[in-house]
Amino acid sequence: MQRGPRLYNALSDEERLARLRRKAARKEKEVHRVRRNRIVACFAITILIFGLQLIMVHVQTGRINSQIQTNKTELNQVNKTNKKLKAQVADLKDPDYVAKVIRYKFYYSKSGESIYTLPDKEEDY
C-alpha cells in the first residue's frame, strides 16, 4: 500500500508491521521478565524474613529450655533443704528434745542428764 515510487532501502508495509510486531513482542517479554524478577524478589525477601524469625524462635526456645533446666536443679536443691527443715521441725515437736536443746544452749542440765548426748542436729543451732 505504498503510494509513490519505492525507495531503495525503504521497507514495505508488511515488513514494517512485522518489525512492529517483533518490537511489541520484545517489549512484552521485557515487561514479563521484569515482573517475574520482582515477584521472585518479593518471595525471596518473604522467605528470608520468615527464616530469620524461625531462627530467632529456635534460639529463644533453647534459652528457655536452659533456664528451665537451671530452675529444675535449683528447685531440687530447695526441696532437699525443705525436707531437711521439715525433719528438724518434726524434732522440735518433741518436748524432751526442745528442753534438751534449751539446756544445751544455756549450758545447764537436769540431774543425771548429760548435755553431750544430744543429737548431731544441734550443731546448726
Description of the structure:
The structure is a single chain. By secondary structure, this protein is an all-alpha fold. Helices cover 73% and strands 0% of the residues. It contains 2 helices and no strands. The longest helix is centred in the middle third of the chain and has 80 residues, at 13-92. It is rod-shaped, with a radius of gyration of 47 Å. The protein starts with 12 loop residues before the first helix and ends in a 20-residue tail after the last helix. The model has no long low-confidence stretch (mean pLDDT 82).
Radius of gyration (CA) equals: 47 Å
Distance between the termini: 121 Å
How many individual helices? 2
Sheet/helix structural class: mainly alpha
Largest sheet: none
Q: What string gives the helices and strands in order? A: HH
Q: What's the overall geometry?
A: rod-shaped
**Helix content, binned percent:** over 70%
